[in-house]
């Protein structure tokens, strides 16, 4: 997969996944089903893991993997069958064993944000499985990314809470 | 699909989807992939739509459907291939055109919460598509559910914001 930094788009980020919308991802409204947005973002996190040494070979060598603790998605536009999509990934923060990522869904090369997903990922020793600090080789790849992305604009849809505009019990 | 109220479990809710974990939902860690939790919750919302007159026949007759605006998921336990799961759905609130739902993932008949998902759903006139108020026939089914569920305990994982415990730029 070609990886590149999108310096001319907002939010910036690394392209970590590309795919066409497949027939099995489309619902009865003729749109990409909400659940499959997160499947696509999940593949985007796999692509991000490749960048920090947690690809299949790295996971095997280290006995580590990432587990998703939490995810938040905003669905901004409908996406139709056959659309060619890409996920752009930005590191929003990290500590010794967690990485907070922001993932934007776009049509390939376009600037219109279709969906935004924020995730907290935990580094896990699969022998337990138990939470553990990032391996030094992983931290050495993650740290420069986190530092580079710290200068990027914070995504508009990060940090949200779901709530009704004016909560009522009944319609 | 059999629907029943789970009065003896927390959080209470209506069972709106049941399925075994399928091979194509499992990732390289041998667990249900994060994205497919949301696919399962999405089918749980379909089951909820059946309860409020927005099943396939209702959608066709009214020209209305629900669009997901926003979703937040907490992943609490790993789920393995072949596990028999159910989604329990609780109405957390609604207004004239939105419904806020809480969805719990459990093994069938068990009380251990495996994952929680909170969603904001918008009623849409598919002729636009444009946001529109619930049809009277839908509101007449939604209102009693919302009133009944207003008395249930608020789910522990509703209303969360994703954040690092102690944000740092570098690991």
Distance between the termini of chain A: 48 Å
Cα radius of gyration of chain A in angstroms: 17 Å
* Highest-level CATH class of chain A: Alpha Beta
Unreliable spans of chain A are: 1-11
The major beta sheet of chain A can be summarized as: 6 strands, antiparallel
Number of domains of chain A: 1
Instruction: Count the DSSP helices of chain A.
Output: 3
Structural class of chain A: alpha+beta
Largest interface: A-B, 62 and 61 residues
Describe what this molecule looks like in 3D.
- The structure is a homodimer of 171-residue chains.
- By secondary structure, the first copy, chain A, is an alpha+beta fold.
- Chain A has a single domain (14-150), classed as Thiol Ester Dehydrase, Chain A.
- Chain A is built from three helices and six strands, in the order E-H-H-E-E-E-E-E-H.
- In chain A, strands 1, 2, 3, 4, 5 and 6 form a six-stranded antiparallel sheet that branches.
- In chain A, a hairpin with a 3-residue loop joins strand 3 (84-94) and strand 4 (98-107).
- Chain A is globular and about 45 Å long.
- Mean pLDDT of chain A is 92; it is low at 1-11.
- Chains A and B meet through helix 1, strand 2, strand 4, strand 5 and helix 3 of A and helix 1, strand 2, strand 5 and helix 3 of B.
